[in-house]
Design goal:
- The chain has a two-stranded parallel sheet.
- A hairpin with a 2-residue loop joins β3 and β4.
- α7 crosses α8 (144-152) and α14 crosses α18 (384-393).
- The chain has helices at residues 2-11, 26-41, 57-69, 73-86, 90-102, 119-131, 133-142, 144-152, 166-189, 200-215, 220-237, 246-252, 258-270, 272-316, 324-346, 354-360, 372-378, 384-393, 401-407, 423-436; strands at residues 20-22, 53-55, 154-156, 159-160.
- It has 454 residues and is mainly alpha-helical.
- It is built from 20 helices and 4 strands.
Length: 454
Amino acid sequence: MANSIGRCLRERGLNKIFTVTVDNASSNDVTTKELSKQLTKMRTNLMNGTHLHVRCMAHIMNLVVQDGFKESSVSIERVRHAVRYVGQSPARLKRFQECFDDEQLNCKKTLCLDVPTRWNSTYLMLRRAVEFESAFSHYASSEIGLRHYLEHSYIEVGIPTGELLSSDWENVNRITKFLEIFYLLTLKISGSRYVTSNTHFLEICAVAVYLKQLIANKDTVLSEMAKNMKEKFDKYWGDTGKMNKIIFTSCILDPRYKLESVGYAFVKMFGVDPGATIQAKVTKYMISLFSEYVNSSSKGVVLSSSSDCSSLDTSTSGLSGSQPSTQNIRLLESLMQDIKKYKSVSGGVDTRTKLDKYLGEETEDDTKEFDVLLWWKLNSAKFSILAEMARDILVVPISSVASECAFSTGGRLLDSIRSSLSPKLVQALVCLQDWLRNEKLKQPVSVEEVLDKI
């Protein structure tokens, strides 16, 4: 995999990679290590590749939540089987709709079956089913087929599903509310039209605090779910030594948060003394990364200055006697400008404290309208090196979901339910989907998010 990526880079004339965002497959760990070696040979591996491998936050959240489902799988399975039973035939759907109308539920939504390996679809299924609880109760009391189906279906080999009880609805209702924060977080970190890396660590801290609160909850179901989730959470985010330092740096480069917010988050997650130790390590890494950018910028100015000097030798050799004074003044001004640039990036004039100045300034107000990229664009003259760092770091995607969706054809496949559609209607549906997702629109429509409205 690393060789294939390297080959693609060479074919396109690229020799620099800042980060690689992938899921948590073990093969990806090996790939990023091998890719780091190749970049080292190219002499473009910044900080020896210590921040090259970024683990997809959405995939980790998926693993964390899936572990939480284990404690309440019986109630979820019963609801899943009930939804599957109702949706298996038009006659059952029609009868369920009649129960729906009898209960006077004013809602145009329909049931949706989940994909068990995707917890967010399970959340959507449960959220919809909870809205139809009274309709399910009415349907079960009047249709013996549902009760018979649940009694003769199995969660696992030898474990029957059993009747859908009121306690199951209570469990599902609590689980739905519990999962809402993770669902909204997954939507937020999977975006592709705004910066996501700057809030990565703070979101992780919020999840850690939330799980700690739930573990201490008197509700045994939620407490057990939270314990299982916390074990998986600690596997990936319980040791900062194993975490990519770039997620801390990106938060520091957000002028609304800076080092104080990151330090407070460390204390909330790990305690006062461990938090202070971790903050010192992160600060040290930030300074080292800043020094790398200072050195690389210094080399760039030296090269540009030397090229100017070489052109100076060739251009002045043929000047007439009346021109040298004017040319020399211009060249002297140009030279002085180059010297100023060199000093500004080489640490000669107050540059070593630019990072300290940025961290020492007051934080910006945290508003919804705040644009972190615009802020760095406006302050790039004041913090030139830090602005260069921000351009590289804030662009890092913390989730690979957006990339996977771009290459996914899942929405275009025809399953057995849609196989009766005519070719003309299929073509119309595919075209309509493209139009709704047209990037040229000011606000492209996310079909999945507004499916009910559509």
